[in-house]
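Field reference: "sequence" (input) and "structure" (output). Example, GNAT family N-acetyltransferase:
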Amino acid sequence: MPNTPPVFCQQFTDIAMLSLRPLNLAQDLALLHQWVTQPHAQFWGMQGFSLKQLQQEYQSLLARSDIYIGYANNTACFLVELYEPQLDEIGNHYPVKRGDIGMHILIAQSNNKVHGFTWSVFQLVMNFIFANDKNQRVIVEPDIRNNKIHSLNTKAGFRYQSAVRLTHKTAHLAFCTRDDFYHALNKDNTTMKHIPLSPEQAVSHLTPELWRHVNRLHVRKALSEFAHERLIKPQLTNEDADWQYFELSTDKETIVYRFKAKLGSLNHWHIAADSIEKQIDNQVAELDSIAFICELQHSLGISQAMLPTYLEEIASTLYGSAYKHQLPALTAEQLTTADFQQVESAMTEGHPCFIANNGRIGFDSNDYRQYAPETGAHLQLVWLAAHKDRIVFSTTDDLDYQTLITQELSTHTIESFKQKLLERGVNSDDYFFFPVHPWQWFNKLASLFSNDIADQHLLCLGYSEDEYQPQQSIRTFFNKTHPHKRYVKTALSILNMGFMRGLSPYYMSATPAINDWVAQVVSQDPYLADSGFTILREVAAIGYYNHALEAATDQYSPYRKMLSALWRESPMPSIKSKQRLMTMASLLHIDNQGQPLLPTLIKSAQIDTHTWITKYLKAYLDPLLHCFYSHDLVFMPHGENLILLLEDNIPVKAIMKDIAEEIAILNKDLVLADNIQRLTVDVPDELKVLSIFTDVFDCFFRFVADILDQQNDYSELDFWQQVAECVISYQQSHPELKDKFIKYDLFSADFTLSCLNRLQLSNNQQMIDLADPAKNLKFEGKLINPIAVFNPVKKDNSVTV
């Protein structure tokens, strides 16, 4: 496979990861010649071409066409040509419209035919075309004798218009608009058909070598994070100029672990994965992450009641890790030019602190391939109609239901939904339409809400036309068909990383109002406005009340959080030339070759590390400091919740998302409107600054510092000094907040260690009460503050200039 990054890729269950890369004529000429001269390519019209003739032909085509080689996993196997009809002979045979684009596809001959492969390639190409909003209609002109392609075109929604005589063939002229294609896709429903894996396919990626590899990586992470939280206490046995050597005793007398590590700031353990050795009775044994947890159950303090569920999350995390590592993933270098959603689906690590961070208990092997974000699969959402008597619906001040629905659904879809309600004898004006996760519908709602469905309080309308891509948060979806449309976030009753991923209708009622309030704070603050910091508003939300479940459960029950959804703004409309988006989680990404993305990204920006980090901290940390000190406003600012806007791969601004459920006002005396008063929380003063120390320093910057330190030209000390300089610069620009800077001192010698894994180990189904987030926190001693040494205020209160 060439090193050039794909311009588009999509995972197809049971088929392959399909991708498109620009044609490199010098490298690909021999391959092209092999393809176009085969008997099955007779309609391509180049069977008698020599290499030189083919080269001349494609040099001419490249001057007026975009040509791509298509790959299935790592194997080149199809050719795609996209052209402007007005520059082609076909443009003389019909009135060309703005937004028209011509398409040719050639599938290479294969001895290993896979059912559904050609249709998957066709979907990939059409999705790629319509991912560009400029493309409104696809034109094809296949030879009238090519019956196979006619069948495929019709299946994809092409409308045949007439036969036309071209120079080298008599062709059918056919057209397919964006709506035609997605309507046909919905009708065929190939992307959503639940095609069961064979028993063997469900575990085909679990090879001995790969399983050993992912277990080694996971044991390394467990050793590092458990040692960081002081759940385990490895003993130093030796050291040299570069490494320290440790031994860890377990709850089992005969089992020990040995490894080498470098201890960094914030008690970060950088462990060499290949150094980890497990011994049982002095005999080397294979690393097994599940066994590791069991061997340390007492040390970890996990109860017998919690252990099985935790082990299930660990097993699922390992299963997913093995699947990710066998995918043809983009390299760190390729990710520096990949698009927003390619980067999103390339993320493999999950939360950097949690050990059981990809549990997804509830998904089976088929579900994983359809719905897990790292597969890059696309799906359609199921839409329901809910009677107005059973729902709460709310929007931001600048939106209403009718506007929302007409913007999110095509006219054709809305009319078809209304017709379905009419056929069932109900008035569509009495219902609101909203989307649900397909898994939620088939696994929970269709049965658990059957009483409401039978009584027509809730009606299923089927799939909508647009295709969506699951995001890292797993229950949020990005619209791939129309990227400028809103994200959709849905309730999903699976257990993942300490929570059942439902959505409460009670929270939905205030969600848009909360977002309006935060957006107003951000937009009306001159300092935040100058920083470029923005939020993606959750502009509409809907929640359904199941009366029977409401009566049978308490307010915290996951059964009350099964049927809600919200719509969030897309960042795509704000993108300008030379700008791109990346999830901030990508700064911690390590590719399958062991190369970290962050230093590769900095190198691609063609500026030095110090300058890049300065701009990053200005875009990310600076606004968080201002929100905390000036507004008592705190977010959950981990990597997945932040989107970085880059220009020439240099950070320009940070975009915060996931607002309503994960923000708080640390001022219980602030009076807000009744419907958003829950934002104010009562947190002890000594814990308030942990919103920076824990959420930013310990849970994100700790890993950034380590990645940069391993590059040898930028030490941890360099990084933390820049963090300190960012804090100092902010404080100097806001002398009016001096008292708060003293009260919530970011230069204190140390701060309390708040432990995430201890939280999950104590209750892996409900770690935090959102109404009282400080109540369940787990603390373990202190961490030395890495920026304390750069404190500009001396002991005598004089300021270092």
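Residues 189-195, 795-801 have pLDDT under 50 and may be disordered.
Residues 609-631 form the longest helix (23 residues).
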